[in-house]
C-alpha cells in the first residue's frame, strides 16, 4: 500500500519542526497539530475568519492546523498561526491589528504553546 500524507516539502518540514518542538519542550500541543497536518489533502482543515473571531475570546493566539480562508470579518487583534493563509485572510488579520504567522515560526516564539487555542 502506498503511504499517504503530505508531499509538499514546506509542509513536511513544518510537521518535522513541530514534532521536534513537541519533544524538546514537552509540549503536546505541537504533536497534536503535527498529527492533524499529516492528514490527506481532502481531510485537512480549512477555517474561515469568522470562526477565528468566534473562538478567540480570552486567548493570546489561535492555532489552525491547516489553511485560513478570508470569509467573514475579524475585529480582534489576535495572533493567528497556521500552515497557510489566503491573501485576503492575511490582509484582514493584519488590518485588525493581529499577526498572521506560520506554525513552525510560532512554535519558536511560544515553545510551550501556552495561552493558545486550536481552532478547527
CATH architecture: Ribosomal Protein L15, Chain: K, domain 2
Average pLDDT for all residues: 91
Order of H and E elements: HHEHEEHEHE
Q: What is the makeup of the main sheet? A: 5 strands, parallel
Helix content: 40-55%
- Kindly estimate the percentage of residues that lie in beta strands according to DSSP: 15-25%
Number of strands: 5
Structural class by helix and strand composition = alpha/beta
**At the third CATH level, what is the topology name?**
Ribosomal Protein L15, Chain: K, domain 2
The tally of structural domains comes to: 1
Q: Looking at the structure, what is the overall shape?
A: globular
CATH class division: Alpha Beta
Low-confidence stretches: none
- Give the CA-CA distance, first to last residue: 29 Å
User: Given the structure, what is the number of helices?
Assistant: 5
Radius of gyration: 14 Å
InterPro entries: Ribosomal_eL18, Ribosomal_eL18_arc, Ribosomal_uL15/eL18, Ribosomal_uL15/eL18_sf, Ribosomal_uL15_CS
Keywords: Ribonucleoprotein, Ribosomal protein
Domain Large ribosomal subunit protein uL15/eL18: 64-100
Family: Belongs to the eukaryotic ribosomal protein eL18 family.
